[in-house]
Design a protein that fits this description.
By secondary structure, the protein is α+β, with helices and mostly antiparallel strands. It is built from 9 helices and 9 strands. Helix content is 51%, strand content 19%. The strands form 2 sheets. The protein has a 6-stranded antiparallel beta sheet. A hairpin with a 2-residue loop joins strand 4 and strand 5. Helix 5 packs antiparallel against helix 9. The radius of gyration is 21 Å and the shape is elongated. GO terms for molecular function: DNA binding; DNA-binding transcription factor activity.
């Protein structure tokens, strides 16, 4: 009996692993054809096509233009369900919406989850040109205001370990790529109370963020940010945005358990 079930169990695990690899490849490609997805997964095209057909039938993948694939609506629905309930919306959204109305810029709420900075809530500004974020996306630790504000709430040994593990790739000419400069940045954030991403993750984009204080006084799990096109900021408005995002993060912190 056991000898019969072991190969079946192994085959099921292979199927699960292949499904995950194919979904990841479709996500990375955003819009990809069979050849590209097969190359990314290192599986043959016949195998990938069989999985894609099943995933498309279930709504996890969408096929269009006959030969191209992208993630389907079912993935979006599951993703929304995964992130809804992480934090009570009533504790976060009113504060985010108030910030958006004051600055008319995109406001993001993120969490430190499994060594990543993950966006949980987004309230978009109403300007024609704005920063667009997606719920579920990850921000870089070293190059985002959200990531740096969270790191500033951690003991030095912890944030240094995160940066060493995640790396500090140069995303723009302004990205901090050395541990010495990051240590100076963390020190400044702690003194000022908020973090600034000065076109470090994307050119023409400046973000201001503050960590949400933890109830136990330890490292923060959450952070709040406002994203500006750089030309819309002056030194005075940057300081004002910093003060407001600190106040908003403290307000949210009082509502969270």
């Amino acid at each position: 009996m056991k000898t019969g079930t072991q190969p079946e169990k192994a085959a099921n695990l292979i199927g699960v692993e292949r499904t995950a690899r194919i979904l990841s490849a479709v996500a990375e490609a955003e819009i990809g054809n069979l050849t590209e997805i097969a190359r990314r997964t290192e599986l043959n095209e016949a195998t990938v096509l069989r999985y894609l057909n099943s995933l498309a039938a279930l709504g996890y993948v969408e096929r269009f233009n006959s030969t191209q694939y992208r993630l389907g609506w079912e993935i979006f629905r599951l993703g929304q369900r995964a992130f809804s309930g992480q934090v009570p919306s009533e504790a976060v959204l009113p504060t985010m919406e108030r910030l958006m109305l004051e600055f008319n810029e995109t406001v993001n709420f993120a969490a430190h989850k499994e060594r990543s900075v993950v966006i949980l809530e987004v309230v978009e500004g109403r300007r024609a040109v704005k920063k667009v974020s997606d719920v579920g996306q990850s921000d870089p630790w070293h190059a985002s205001a959200l990531g740096k504000s969270l790191m500033a709430s951690m003991p030095d040994s912890v944030w240094r370990d995160i940066v060493a593990s995640a790396g500090m790739p140069e995303l723009t000419p302004h990205t901090i790529t050395s541990m010495k400069k990051m240590a100076a940045e963390i020190k400044e954030i702690r003194e000022r109370g908020f973090a600034v991403d000065r076109e470090e993750a994307a050119e023409e984009l400046t973000c201001v963020a503050a960590a949400v204080p933890a109830a136990d006084g330890g490292s923060s799990r959450y952070a709040l940010s406002i994203s500006f096109l750089t030309h819309r900021l002056t030194p005075e408005s940057l300081e004002h945005a910093g003060a407001q995002v600190i106040a908003a993060a403290n307000e949210i912190g009082r509502k969270l358990p």
